[in-house]
């Protein structure tokens, strides 16, 4: 008789722990979003509650969504754009340098053709 009540108590305890565990787990993406100052943390919070009804099928996507944003670098795409802009500026600088060097080479070649070379004659004086 005592073991029946003890087993019922353990069963209720396990059910309550699992219930609260599932509720605590669903809120992890929201907590990450709050910590990172995510601009869509309210949507993540609501989607976390919706994930309870989908048996946490969308929960991994919420985790990814929450971890994509960081306040110091945003969504992470701006660094790529900055790097591309920097590379584009470098390429333009190199093109300008090559153009200047080509113009300078053309000037030197033109100056070389304009210079009259002196004619040296071999005169022998006796």
Write up this protein.
Residues 84-111 form a coiled coil. This is GTPase. Keywords: Coiled coil, Membrane, Transmembrane, Transmembrane helix. With 126 residues, the chain is mainly α. It folds into 2 domains: 1-70, no CATH class; 77-110. It is built from 5 helices and no strands. The protein has helices at residues 2-26, 28-35, 41-53, 59-68, 78-114. The chain is rod-shaped, with a radius of gyration of 38 Å.
In summary, what is this structure?
This protein folds into 2 domains: 1-70, no CATH class; 77-110. It has helices at residues 2-26, 28-35, 41-53, 59-68, 78-114. The longest helix is centred in the last third of the chain and has 37 residues, at 78-114.
List low-confidence stretches. Answer: none
Principal-axis shape equals rod-shaped
Largest β sheet strand count, sense and barrel closure:
none
Tally of individual helices: 5
The amount of helix comes to over 70%
Strand content: under 5%
Mean residue pLDDT = 87
Structural class by SSE content:
mainly alpha
* Gap from first CA to last CA: 146 Å
Rg measurement, Å = 38 Å
Task: Spell out the key features of this protein.
126 residues, mainly alpha, 2 domains, 74% helix, transmembrane, coiled coil
Would you spell out the secondary-structure blueprint of this structure?
Layout: H1 2-26, H2 28-35, H3 41-53, H4 59-68, H5 78-114
Helix pairs in contact: 2-3, 2-4, 3-4
Protein name: GTPase
Coiled coil: 84-111
Keywords: Coiled coil, Membrane, Transmembrane, Transmembrane helix
